[in-house]
Amino acid sequence: MKEGTNVLSIRCNDCCASLGRVRVGVDVVATSAIEASIQNFGERFVRRIFTAHEIATANGAVFRLAARFAAKEAAIKAFDMSETGVDWRHIELRSDTARRPTLHFYGSARKRVDSFNPMDVSVSLSHEFDIAVATVVALLSP
């Protein structure tokens, strides 16, 4: 970094060749929109979008379901699944032993993700007031 500047410039060739490629997906969801869908469509909506595990771990908290919905959307964006018609329940949010969120893929979603040959997939969730946001970052093999 040049002295007196606040900008760090790294040429992509310096780092990306050894790291591989990166895929990113981000989604923002209004908690009230998820709540409205639950009110309008009831259990049918919940069971169509979320796995039994996700429903159980949300403990009835709509903000948790909204964050899980955002994570699924972010994964769909990161792996270009919007045109492939994936079952929402084939993308599942779980927690590892340290309680960090992790994504698990099944069926056609797993097949699509595997086609990118990811070395690592990370997900980050946040919610505040009526907003839930999720980011999915996948580091692909070079």
Give the integer mean of the pLDDT values.
Answer: 89
Share of helical residues: 40-55%
> What is the radius of gyration computed over CA atoms, rounded to a whole number of angstroms?
17 Å
**Distance between the terminal alpha carbons, to the nearest Å?**
27 Å
**By helix and strand content, what is the structural category?**
alpha+beta
- Strand residue content: 25-35%
Strand line-up across the major sheet: 1-5-4
How large is the count of helical segments?
A: 6
> Any idea what the shape is?
globular
Order of helices and strands: HEHHHHEEHEE
Largest sheet descriptor? 3 strands, antiparallel
Number of strands: 5
* Unreliable stretches covering 5 or more consecutive residues: 8-14
Written description of the protein model:
The chain has helices spanning 12-19, 31-41, 43-49, 52-58, 62-78, 107-115; strands at 21-30, 91-95, 101-105, 118-128, 131-140. It is α+β, with helices and mostly antiparallel strands. The strands form 2 sheets. The chain has a 3-stranded antiparallel beta sheet. A hairpin with a 5-residue loop joins β2 and β3. α2 crosses α5.
Q: Would you kindly provide a brief summary of this structure?
A:
This protein is of the alpha+beta class. Helix content is 42%, strand content 29%. It has 6 helices and 5 strands.
